[in-house]
TrEMBL record:
GO terms for cellular component: membrane. Residues 412-604 form the Histidine kinase domain. PROSITE patterns: HIS_KIN. It comes from Runella defluvii. This is Signal transduction histidine kinase. The keyword Ligase does not apply. GO terms for molecular function: phosphorelay sensor kinase activity; protein dimerization activity. CDD domains: HATPase_UhpB-NarQ-NarX-like. The chain crosses the membrane at residues 181-199, 206-224, 236-258, 270-287, 293-316, 323-340, 352-374. Keywords: Kinase, Membrane, Signal, Transferase, Transmembrane, Transmembrane helix, Two-component regulatory system. The keyword Transmembrane applies. Residues 1-19 form the signal peptide.
Amino acid sequence: MRVSALFILFLVSSLRLVAQVITLSDTIQKYAISYPSYLEDTHASFTLGQVEKEAFVKSNDKVPDFLGNFSKAIWYRFDVINKSKTDDWYLEIKGGFMHHLTVYQQHETGAFQALKLSGDGDFRSRPVFSNNLVFPIPVASGEKLKIYVRATSKTLIRTSMSLNTMQKLYEDNIRISYGDGFFTAVAVALLLYNLFVYFSLREKVYLYYIGYISTAILHTNLVAGHVQLFLPWLDVLNTTTILPIVSFFSILFTNSFLQTQTYAPFIYKIRWPMIAICLLPLVFYAVGSYKVAILLVAIFVFTLFIYWLVAGIWVYRKGFAPAIFYIIGFGALALMSVVFELKMKGWLEESYWTDSSLFIGAAIEAVILSFALADKFNFYKKEKERLQEDAYRQTTRFARELISMQEAERKRIASELHDGLGQKLILIKNKILRAAQPGAAASIHLSGEALSQNVAEAIQEVRDISYGLRPYQLDLLGLSSSIKSLVEETLDAAQIDYEIYLDNVDQLFDNNAQINIYRIIQECVNNIVKHAAASQVSIHIKHQSDQVKITISDDGVGFNHHLNHAGFGLKGMKERLQILEGKMTVTTKQPKGTLFEFVIPLLTDTSYGQ
């Protein structure tokens, strides 16, 4: 039993696969060589004589795919019987990115003819000047040929083969070439338009668009075999080397156009790892590891489609309306790329639309992304107008509040002048009048002491009012001493414990900046005394190279700084910081205190608020 099984296995393995037979009869029909019989030549070492003795395998796919470095060469075999009235037939092999293709023709007499062409070589070496590789197959009427095709590539080996007459080749290719040229022209026109816009606006997003669309156009023309017509010497260009560059520009464009730093921080953070991965295939290709390079490109292109989709949807859901054009544009490219792949795999019939699907997708994407850039410009224009309107309303509201505060300040000063200084001056006047009356000589000495005390109090009242308007210490002692004096006097009077550490910040700011910094600290300290119910306050002022950092913290009741407070304090501090071009951070943990952090840059020209 075992011997019988082994004999049957040996017999089956010894059988030669019957070659695929293509019968030519209609001169205006294309004869596709589907499900070809193939042989993998792993080390590209087989000779034709060896190949004739090897067993071929029938493909399960209409157009099988092979990675160049898994099998360095692939052999195909089929037979041709000519039952037409013409002997002028041609074998067309699509795949402009192929490296070397050799066609061997064995006539019934046993004689061989061989023709070797290069997919990335000079067009002038081809017997038929075409973007695809076209091999003349002279076969007499009634004759039968045995044909072997040997294919090598530095990228994907995919040989879509068909037998045609010259008439059929011309009729098919003229329409496809016209379409390819038209859609390429559309993409190039939009590229040039956006190049002009870039020189006008100097926005990097247009530069990334130009880089992406130009490399995408190069890729589509490379796949179609048109690039070799103009750049026959640049044989390093193929899908494995150009797709990483296309991906590089697409990632830059995606993050710049979608403003992912604002709307999708995670997408923005992974942009550099994505770029590093997309350029990795170029490294492996440069050292000759074509297999790894091809696999990495295939994996990354799939990942990139997901990246585009997630980034577009994420940003659109965050409220960035122009992202819809981005989604449609890249979606159109992805769809047409799938159509092209299905056509190349033989799952879709070849036609004008499927053959030109990559060009159509690139052109549609270029058009839609141009609309997207225009819509983005309009979006930000409207956003700028809205912000200007909000700023105008805020400025108006601030102006009203400022006027109210000025009026309140005038009222306070008037009250202090009338009720304080005015009353003291009236008292001094009355005492002087009494001293001037007859019979008042005995009490002149006593009245003089009282008069001196009243004058001193009036002078102090004037000083207090003047100090409220402009701290005299700023001019006499400098900013550092003035801040220290302010903190000590205010917190000592309120009986609040405190610690203060300050660097010397004198001469770092101009006079206007100094008064603004002083008022900010004064407002914070006064708020702590009035509202915080704090028992401990810490104030740190540090000079850090090109900025000054002020930190004020307390252990009081805290407050919710996100709410709109009726007081003018926070708004006033924000306005002063805006003049200083500084930043404020408020951290509060009710009821455990508040932390204010102010960062004020040191401007080289000291022109704060100019």
